[in-house]
C-alpha cells in the first residue's frame, strides 16, 4: 500500500483508503510520542518563563491559543536525535501522486527524517550544558520549528522569530504536541536592523517558504510564482535584554542575514563566552539578492569580536574566545 501513488491511475486525493492510512498512521505516532513524553521538559521548580524576562514594548508574542487551526495536520516524531521531538508538515507535496517524503515514511511506519539543523542545535546545546552554562536559544527564521523543538526538547527556553502565518500555525501545533508552551516564545515578525515593515515573498504552492528578496525567493525555491505580503520587522536588541544570557543564535532567512546581524549588535558585542554561538546561512547568491555579501557579513562580525568562523556546507559557525 505505501507504493499506491506509483499506480498508472492515481488514487483520488480524498480517497477514503488513502486518508485512513495517512491520518491513522499520524495519530498513532503522535499518541505514542505524547504518552511517553514528560509533561514539562524543564523540571526546575524555580523556572520563570522566558516570555516574562524579555522586552515586548516593540512587539507582543504570537497567541497560539487564539490563532485559527490549520488543517489537515500531519505530524510525527523525528528519527536519529538524542532528544526526540515532533513537528508538523506544512508542505505535503503533490497529493496523491507525489506526496512529501515524510508522508511516505509515515505510511511505511517510519518517523520523519532528521533535519540536519536539529542535530546541530542539540550538539551545541549539549556542550553548553556540559560546561554548566545557562541561557536560551534564539531561532531566527524558525520555519515550522525543527530547530526550536530540538532545543525545547532538551529543556532550553527558545525565542523564535517567524513572519509567515502558515508556519506560525505549524509551530503552534508543535508547541502543543511537544508540551513546551512554557519554554517557547513565538514572535510573528522578521528580525531585521530596524522597527517597521517589510515585504516578504511567499512561494505559490509552498507557503511555508519565503524570502524578503523576490529574486532570492526564486533562487532559493526555484519558483516563478510568489505572493507578496507585508510583515513586521524588529531588531533582536529591541527584544533581548542585556541581562539575559543567550547560548545559541541561529539565523536562516534566505539572504537577509546581514540585516538580522546588524539588529543584534549589542547581543553580538558581548564579551567572550557571554556572546552566543552563532550559526547563519552564508549563501552568496541569496546574500547578493538582498544587497549584501559574505565579506560584508564577516567584516561586520569581526567589528563585534567574532574572528573565529568556519564554513559548514552553506552555514557559517562563529564563536568568540574568552580573553
TrEMBL record:
Residues in Methyltransferase FkbM domain copies: 139-306
Record-linked Pfam families: Methyltransf_21
NCBIfam families according to UniProt: fkbM_fam
Annotated PANTHER family: EXPRESSED PROTEIN (PTHR34203:SF13), METHYLTRANSFERASE, FKBM FAMILY PROTEIN (PTHR34203)
Official protein name in the record: Methyltransferase FkbM domain-containing protein
Amino acid at each position: 500500500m505505501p507504493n499506491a501513488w506509483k499506480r498508472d491511475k492515481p488514487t483520488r486525493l480524498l480517497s477514503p483508503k488513502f486518508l485512513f492510512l495517512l491520518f491513522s498512521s499520524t495519530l498513532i505516532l503522535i499518541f505514542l510520542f505524547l504518552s511517553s513524553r514528560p509533561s514539562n521538559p524543564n523540571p526546575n521548580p524555580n523556572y520563570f518563563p522566558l516570555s516574562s524576562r524579555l522586552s515586548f514594548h516593540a512587539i507582543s508574542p504570537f497567541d497560539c491559543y487564539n490563532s485559527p487551526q490549520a488543517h489537515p495536520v500531519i505530524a510525527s516524531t523525528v528519527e536519529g536525535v538524542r532528544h526526540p521531538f515532533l513537528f508538523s508538515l506544512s508542505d505535503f507535496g503533490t497529493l496523491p501522486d507525489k506526496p512529501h517524503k515524510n508522508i511516505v515514511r509515515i505510511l511505511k511506519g517510519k518517523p520523519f527524517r532528521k533535519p540536519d539543523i536539529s542535530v546541530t542545535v542539540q550538539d551545541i546545546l549539549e556542550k553548553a550544558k556540559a560546561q554548566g552554562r545557562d541561557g536560551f536559544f534564539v531561532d531566527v527564521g524558525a520555519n515550522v520549528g525543527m530547530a526550536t523543538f530540538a532545543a525545547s526538547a532538551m529543556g532550553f527556553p527558545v525565542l523564535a522569530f517567524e513572519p509567515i502565518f502558515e508556519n506560525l500555525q505549524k509551530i503552534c501545533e508543535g508547541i502543543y504536541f511537544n508540551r513546551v508552551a512554557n519554554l517557547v516564545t513565538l514572535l510573528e515578525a522578521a528580525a531585521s536592523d530596524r522597527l517597521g515593515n517589510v515585504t516578504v515573498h511567499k512561494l505559490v504552492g509552498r507557503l511555508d517558504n519565503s524570502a524578503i528578496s523576490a529574486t532570492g525567493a526564486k533562487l532559493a525555491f526555484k519558483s516563478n510564482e510568489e505572493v507578496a505580503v507585508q510583515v513586521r520587522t524588529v531588531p533582536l536588541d529591541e527584544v533581548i535584554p542585556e541581562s539575559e544570557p543567550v547560548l545559541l543564535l541561529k539565523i536562516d532567512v534566505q539572504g537577509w542575514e546581514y540585516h538580522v546581524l546588524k539588529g543584534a549588535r549589542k547581543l553580538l558585542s558581548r564579551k567572550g563566552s557571554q556572546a552566543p554561538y552563532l550559526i547563519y546561512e552564508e549563501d552568496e547568491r541569496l546574500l547578493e539578492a538582498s544587497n549584501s555579501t559574505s565579506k560584508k557579513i564577516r567584516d561586520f562580525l569581526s567589528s563585534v569580536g567574532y574572528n573565529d568562523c568556519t564554513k559548514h556546507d552553506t552555514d557559517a559557525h562563529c564563536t568568540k574566545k574568552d580573553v
